[in-house]
Design brief:
heterotrimer; A alpha+beta (about 525); B mainly alpha (about 325); C mainly alpha (about 280); A: about 525 residues; alpha+beta; Dipeptide-binding Protein, domain 3; eleven-stranded mixed β-sheet; four-stranded antiparallel β-sheet; 18 helices; globular; C: about 280 residues; mainly alpha; MetI-like fold; SBP_5 (chain A); ABC transporter substrate-binding protein (chain A); transport (chain A); peptide transmembrane transporter activity (chain A); signal (chain A)
């Protein structure tokens, strides 16, 4: 297995030849470590590369989160189907491959300066927008820099903060200047938010992009119908003529629709639905191993969740094995209360794996002095599996003599009214293309997603330093320390990493898992085809 | 009669106004505002403030309400905050879907229920009535989520006869639409028929014990005509009321069925809009629901008025 | 005619006994639930979700491997207590206001009637969704919600019953004696409307059970690990496709209880009819 892993990693790097010198790419790339995960899991890749793709047909996707917030404005994407709509209508400078490495798209190649503060991207010539105008570097610059604008209210505002300027340097070269070094910039410019739009676009009701599809019908909360873009810059793509997205919020109904052949792809299978699809002859379970997680976090700036012993007691009150077996039906990996996956080269194997341990929990409870006080943990149907994980924790807590109560909060206002505003609450994170992005977003002082309000000068320094550290050994050491700090803080109980488990009809070919999201990392519409 | 209708229409308008104010206040006190919810997990204070400004949420609530009201009076339903499209456009497809489901269900269920109820009432006390009563009662007491889930499991997943979701593709033909609608309509027909049949039986069985029926029997009217003419005429008022309530329910109360079959109807839209704090859409849905209810009741009242037994029973008797 | 009546009476007995039996069992289970559960309803008894029934785990296990029978017993208690309290509150509120409106008439009647119309015109389940979104889901919120929503219906019944009586002689006599409205309400009117209101109570309670179950089914019910019948259906609905009966049992409980309450009312009604006929 380790042989395969190494080979996959090497292949991954070899293919990403453009830009960064080979050696430094190897050092820099933390590509979600997924490189190893995919190969190691022996995942079946749907559609053999040998079979020739066929043209034509309509593919229908049932998404899980129905909302009238559906949008084509990449600054406001929040759901999986937004990302899929986005990757179908817009192009990106780069895209992630199966190993988590950036691959050329609109950018043909890239080259950093010595300390990775100035990057030159070669732009593919002759790309046209769907309205017939030519794509210019000004458009790309606007597409990145608009996320800095106050009125855009972008979710990528934090990430674009390190970008000082974007400007043309000659007809087909674009230069990005950074405030501080970032060796992962080619990954960053490929994230969903940086969809390439026309300069000056603020209204996305009728989106114009350079992607594989154009919009035929868009009814937020009901459906999106996309048809093939005849002027798409990738020769012969997309293979399918039409792509349709609609919503089935109920997990059981979604699985039923796939089983009865009403839809071709569904986002997220759950519980028994997984087994039913696995048994079926016309559809398959499509698994993407990932470091997505649902955790119970403590707000460490208030009582009672500022009590480190109480927090550590909770960490020993989760039966991680049971979470994996019963709640996730085995589709996940046991985690150790920090966000780095066990298959990552940066994983700190020196930290003892936490398990269900009532004695240790009792010891910490004793020390915490909580006694019979009621401890409330907020969970929500909007936070995947949190209600189930909460119930498992509650049960073990009652055994250890802790009076733990669950509060199921409404999903709609959860992120604004609950997460970070109650002592204990569940959070759910999709993996980012690099761990550094995630750490920056979730563990920096004052970061929006630092729901625990955890502040630690040492951690702060390690996160910043590791982004610019070139020496792999030193970087590993920095990551070991980061994991130890989070592990010991008690700010987060992270029982398991959750795979993406989706359902796909056997007619669909050419889909491969990309570990940043469901169904090929939400980026698949220009490479799938329908069998015969 | 005309003054009666006029009075009721006026009452209706006042009621709709009250509902709109109530809904507005309701949305104001919901935690989280539209900007916050629209930006979701990603929101920073700055982001939220920027979006609030963009949406004009900085204006006081009463001002926003009044401008909305003025818009409505001019026939402008306003613009959805989240999608920035006219509310009327957003409503149109959902309204059509909901209307279609309600209409088909009504057309099937109401005659079925009335005939069933009538037959049960005529045979009151006999084995047929007893057993039918139990079945109807059982169905009316079974939660619709169970009926719907079992129907999907049997007809869609096991037998593969019908689609599991009632999703209507744009431009789908009659047979496709019919297939898609079959299971939700079946579920609702079972629920609604059971309700109406039960009430019909109770009303008519009760009427059949009234003195004027006995009188007619003494006059030698064949029993079939008694039921057909007298009882039914006398029962129009209460029956219309029950049918009206059930139609109103079909328009506004079918959240569970919409959920099970992923049917994009009005109730689901309103829930989404509440979750997104999209006030203009919430208001529009609430008004439609409330108006449907009131208009249905109004029609029932008018019918009851026309067929008032106290004014008509006597006349009917004399004609015999 | 006589023959039919006899059959009817026998039928009445049968359904009456059935409904009393069911309601009795439910009441006993609700009262003694904590003492008769075979397992702690939150304890994991199997390692596999939707475990098959076996000795000691009579109905199998639920989606997290907990004992379904114990959860059903616990859910009976939750469901019935909530429905009962909600119905009692709805009737206290609706009866008092309805009879008051009938007795006083004028603007008091007009105002309360319009408010009741308002509540009735809004779809219950959507009002529920909005309220729970605003206030969060707790036992208190759901019970109060059901109480207010159903009080409007009760009000209309009580008002109609009251209006019929107001014109009658004995009320006029009482009024002319100078009795206060409170006295008239409780000593003159109430005895006459008690029986139909009792029938309404049972029907209303079956509505309340269905309403709360629907809310729970949509994920707006009581807080986990507590679950009412509707919540149990929702939790375990995923097992249906795999052949698990876990969601069927609580759904049956809802249906059977609701049937029993309705049969009880039917019988009360028909007995009343017979009494009048006699």
């Amino acid at each position: 297995m380790s042989d395969e892993t190494d080979k996959a990693k090497q292949n991954g790097h070899a293919e990403t030849g453009a830009g960064l010198p080979h050696v430094s790419r190897r050092m820099f790339n933390m590509g979600l470590l997924s490189s190893s995960m995919i190969a190691a899991s022996g995942l079946p890749i749907i559609g053999s590369a040998l079979a020739a793709p066929t043209r034509g047909g309509t593919v229908r996707l049932a998404a899980n989160q129905q909302s009238t917030n559906d949008t084509f404005d990449s600054a406001k994407y929040v759901k999986g189907d937004d990302y899929i709509r986005g990757t179908s209508v817009f192009s990106y400078l780069t895209r992630l491959d199966e190993q988590g490495n950036p691959q050329p798209e609109v950018a043909r190649s890239w080259e950093p300066n010595e300390n990775a503060t100035r990057w030159a991207f070669k732009i593919r010539p002759g790309i046209m927008f769907s309205d017939g105008t030519k794509l210019s570097i000004d458009d790309i610059a606007f597409s990145i820099l608009r996320h800095k604008e106050e009125k855009v209210a972008s979710s990528a505002k934090q990430l674009v903060g390190n970008i000082k300027s974007v400007a043309a340097d000659g007809p087909d070269t674009m230069v990005i200047e950074l405030e501080t070094p970032d060796v992962d910039l080619p990954v960053l410019v490929g994230i969903f938010q940086f969809a390439i739009v026309k300069k000056g676009t603020y209204d996305f009701a009728k989106p114009i992009g350079t992607g594989p599809f154009v919009v035929k019908e868009f009814q937020p909360g009901i459906r999106t119908v996309l048809v093939r873009n005849p002027t798409y810059w990738k020769e012969g793509r997309p293979y399918i003529d039409q792509f349709e997205i609609f919503f089935i919020p109920d997990a059981a109904a979604r699985a039923n629709a796939l089983l009865s052949g009403d839809v071709d792809m569904i986002i997220e299978l759950r519980g028994s639905g997984i087994e039913e699809v696995a048994k079926s002859s016309n559809a398959s379970v499509f698994v993407t191993p990932s470091t997505r997680y649902t955790a119970i976090q403590a707000a460490v700036d208030r009582a009672p969740s500022n009590n480190q012993d109480l927090n550590l007691a909770l960490a020993y009150l989760v039966d991680r094995k049971r979470v994996l077996d019963t709640v996730l039906r085995g589709y996940g990996t046991i985690a150790n209360d920090h966000p780095i996956g066990p298959k990552s080269p940066y994983f700190n194997s020196a930290l003892p794996q936490r398990t269900l341990d009532t004695d240790k929990a009792k010891f910490h409870l004793q020390k915490s002095g909580v006694g019979q006080a009621k401890i409330e943990v907020s969970v929500s149907d909007g936070v995947l599996y949190s209600v189930d994980i909460g119930q498992l924790m509650q049960r073990e807590a009652s055994r250890a003599g802790l009076n733990l109560e669950l509060r199921r909060e409404p999903a709609d206002s959860y992120w604004s009214a609950v997460a970070g505003k109650r002592p204990y609450f569940a959070t759910n994170f999709h993996p980012r293309p690099t761990y550094n992005m995630l750490l920056n977003l979730a563990w920096r002082k004052g970061a929006v997603w630092n729901f625990s309000h955890y502040e630690n000068d040492n951690l702060e320094k390690l996160i910043i330093d590791s982004r610019a550290t070139l020496d792999p050994a030193k970087r590993k050491q920095q990551y070991d320390e980061i994991q130890a700090i989070i592990y010991n803080s008690g700010a987060m109980v992270l029982p398991c990493f959750l795979n993406y488990v989706d359902g796909v009809s056997n007619k669909i070919k050419g889909l491969t898992p990309i570990p940043v999201g469901s169904l090929g990392g939400f980026n698949f519409t220009d490479r799938i085809w329908l069998e015969g | 009669m005309l003054s009666f209708i006029l009075k009721r229409v006026l009452q209706t308008i006042v009621l709709l106004l009250a509902v709109s104010i109530l809904v507005f206040i309701g949305c104001e006190i919901l935690p989280g505002d539209v900007a916050q919810v629209a930006l979701g997990q990603f929101a920073t204070e700055d982001n939220v403030r920027a979006l609030r400004l963009e949406l004009g949420l900085d204006r006081p609530a009463y001002e926003r309400y009044l401008s909305w009201l003025v818009g409505i009076l001019q026939g402008d339903w306003g613009q959805s905050i989240t999608t920035k499209t006219p509310v009327a456009t957003m409503l149109s497809e959902r309204l059509w879907n909901t209307g279609l489901l309600a209409l088909v269900t009504t057309v099937v269920a109401v005659p079925l229920a009335l005939v069933l109820g009538l037959l049960m009432a005529v045979g009151a006390g006999r084995t047929w009535d007893r057993s039918a009563s139990i079945v109807v009662l059982g169905l009316s007491a079974t939660p619709e989520f169970l009926i719907g889930s079992l129907a999907v499991l049997l007809f869609a997943v096991q037998l593969r006869w019908l689609p599991a979701v009632a999703y209507l593709s744009p431009g789908s033909g009659f047979s496709q639409t019919a297939r898609a609608l079959f299971l939700p309509v079946l579920t609702l027909v079972i629920v609604v028929t059971a309700q109406i049949a039960r009430m019909t039986r109770a009303i008519i069985a009760n009427l059949l014990t009234q003195p004027f029926v006995e009188m007619a029997v003494l006059k030698g009217v064949p029993s079939r005509r008694i039921v057909g003419v007298h009882a039914l005429i006398n029962a129009v008022g209460p029956l219309a009321n029950i049918v009206a309530l059930n139609i109103a329910y079909l328009v506004s109360g079918v959240v569970v069925v919409e959920t099970i079959f992923a049917y994009p109807g009005l109730a689901g839209l309103m829930i989404n809009a509440v979750q997104a704090r999209d006030l203009p859409v919430v208001q529009a849905c609430a008004l439609i629901f409330c108006a449907t209810y009131v208009i249905m009741i109004l029609v029932a009242d008018i019918l009851a008025h026309l067929y008032d037994p106290r004014s008509n029973a006597q006349a009917a008797m004399e004609k015999l | 005619m006589l023959n039919v009546a006899a059959v009817q009476r026998r039928g009445i007995r049968l359904t009456l006994w059935f409904s009393i039996l069911i309601i009795g069992i439910c009441a006993l289970v609700a009262i003694f639930g904590p003492w008769i559960v075979p397992h702690d309803p939150t304890e994991f008894v199997t390692d596999e979700p939707f475990g098959r029934p076996q000795v000691g785990i009579w109905l199998g296990s639920d989606y997290l491997g907990r004992d379904l029978l114990s959860r059903l017993i616990d859910g009976t208690r939750t469901t019935l207590v909530m429905a009962l309290v909600a119905t009692v509150l709805a009737h206290l509120l609706g009866d008092c206001l309805g009879l008051l409106a009938a007795l006083r008439g004028g603007w008091v009647d007009a105002v309360i009637s319009r408010i009741a119309d308002l509540i009735l015109s809004l779809p219950k389940i959507i009002v529920g969704l909005v309220i729970v979104a605003a206030l969060g889901s707790s036992v208190l919120v759901i019970v109060m919600l059901a109480a207010v929503v159903y009080a409007a219906g009760v009000f209309r019944i009580a008002r109609a019953l009251g209006s019929d009586l107001v014109g009658m002689d004995f009320i006029k006599v009482a009024k002319s004696r100078g009795e206060g409205p409170g006295w008239i309400l409780f000593s003159e009117i109430f005895p006459h409307v008690a029986q139909p209101l009792a029938a309404d109570f049972a029907i209303r309670m079956s509505f309340a059970i269905l309403f709360m179950s629907s809310l729970s089914f949509l994920g707006l019910g009581v807080q986990p690990p507590l679950a009412d019948w509707g919540g149990l259906v929702r939790e375990n609905l995923g097992g249906l496709a795999g052949g698990s009966l876990a969601p069927i049992f609580p759904a049956m409980a809802i249906a059977v209880t609701s049937i029993a309450l309705n049969l009880l009312v039917d019988n009360i009604g028909e007995q009343q009819l017979q009494k009048k006929g006699a």
